[in-house]
Amino acid sequence: MAFSIVFGPDKSEEMWEGQKIRVGCISIGDFTEEFTSFLDFWTPADYETQWRAEIGRMVSGARVDALITDMHNLGTAHHLVSWPLYREDDLVFVQNRLLFLSDLGRPLHLDQLIGKLGDRSTISEDGATISEWSVGIQDLRDFLARLA
């Protein structure tokens, strides 16, 4: 399985610092990482719907998109956690990024926020290499087909 983003199969919710969370996992080739999604604003189904929609957009030709793994109210949140997707031909580069809403002009809709991601960069403002992984567009199609 070259690409996957899912919540664990047990569907259990946990508490962390007084808030409900759900643990998920993203796999890109040989790379796998768990993430924590807070459930104060979105349900697990909301996250999964967003992931399917954005992966579908990428497969359909979008050049920049993002999978949100920690969503909060855009009007009041400090940041969101995302996995930006950058398509170049039949290859998609995936990064992990905190999106600081004040730096992005506090967009009111998720589409506006994704529109402000900008072009793919491999070097941070501090000159450090940005970690990223790549996946073929067919792997994203295969992931969507497994969900159907």
The computed structural class is: alpha+beta
**Approximately how much helix is present in the residues?**
10-25%
The CATH architecture is 2-Layer Sandwich
Radius of gyration over alpha carbons?
15 Å
Describe the secondary-structure layout.
Elements: E1 3-7, E2 14-16, E3 19-28, E4 31-38, H1 44-59, E5 64-70, E6 79-88, E7 91-95, E8 97-100, H2 110-115, E9 132-136, H3 137-147
Antiparallel strand pairs: 1-3, 2-3, 3-4, 5-6, 6-7, 6-8, 7-9
Describe this structure as you would to a colleague:
This protein is α+β, with helices and mostly antiparallel strands. It has a single domain (42-147), classed as Secreted effector protein pipB2 fold (2-Layer Sandwich). The chain is 22% helix and 39% strand. The protein has 3 helices and 9 strands, in the order E-E-E-E-H-E-E-E-E-H-E-H. Strands 5, 6, 7, 8 and 9 form a 5-stranded antiparallel β-sheet that branches. A hairpin with a 2-residue loop joins strand 2 (14-16) and strand 3. It is globular and about 45 Å long. The protein starts with a strand and ends with a helix. The model has no long low-confidence stretch (mean pLDDT 91).
Q: Which descriptors would you attach to this protein?
A:
9 strands, five-stranded antiparallel β-sheet, Secreted effector protein pipB2 fold, alpha+beta, single chain, 148 residues, 22% helix
